[in-house]
């Protein structure tokens, strides 16, 4: 039996929702803030998005989604093209190769694992930016960005859990 147009549209919307939410969060994260220096030391929102979906629904955010988010982030943040894409795709790769570890684990375990993944990601991104642009980021903004990333994850994970429920709910 062939699916109806509405069923096809529903399935397409469900499959694009994680990417669309991640894109929206990226745009919100780079919006001008009133706090001076916030952009330099903001949380790595795209990393959180890619990490969550790689842990909970790897089929919903593939490498192409991570690549496109990273490319857009590089364009909007004026970082060397490909740096964020590389970091996001490596994050997906690390999580997917350790997927059996994540299955059925409580939130605190995945949060702890994020702390390790995010540390590697932020250091790799800083190193790549330094090598490609010659701009060395001071340790304080890196530490602030890392801390904000870890603090923001429970909030985003809670919202993504609600979205995950909608994605798995039968039409």
UniProtKB/TrEMBL annotation:
One of its GO terms (biological process) is regulation of cell shape. Pfam families: MreD (PF04093). Its main location: membrane. InterPro entries: Cell_shape_determining_MreD (IPR007227). It is a multi-pass membrane protein. Keywords: Cell membrane, Cell shape, Membrane, Transmembrane, Transmembrane helix. GO terms for cellular component: plasma membrane. The chain crosses the membrane at residues 12-31, 38-55, 75-96, 108-137, 143-160. It comes from the Bacteria. It is found in: Cell membrane. Belongs to the MreD family. NCBIfam families: shape_MreD. This is Rod shape-determining protein MreD. The gene is mreD.
